[in-house]
Amino acid sequence: MALKTIFHLDTTQRWAHLASNLDNYLGAEPDADIEVLVNGGGITVYFDPQVTEFIAAHPQVKFFACHNSLQQRHLDERQLPATVKVVPVGVVKIAQAEADGYGYIKP
Question: Where are the domains of the chain?
Fold first, then answer.
């Protein structure tokens, strides 16, 4: 059975750590079901070209953005990388994932 994990990022300063954690995790568990939820101050990482490249290089990972965080910062969700899905409330997405048996990691 594949491991199920949701990673949570709420600050841009932790992006490099999260990216490293993801690569290490996938190296050990290549069939894992991984989701990444970004909210709060971390939401602006999705507008960084290097992050867009990272996302494109990891098609097996599902990336999510919090609508509330985008709205609070006046960011246009249409400018997100195409594979990033917007959820209404980031913390609810985390709670739903945990209820569905996902482990929680916040680097």
Answer: 4-11+34-105
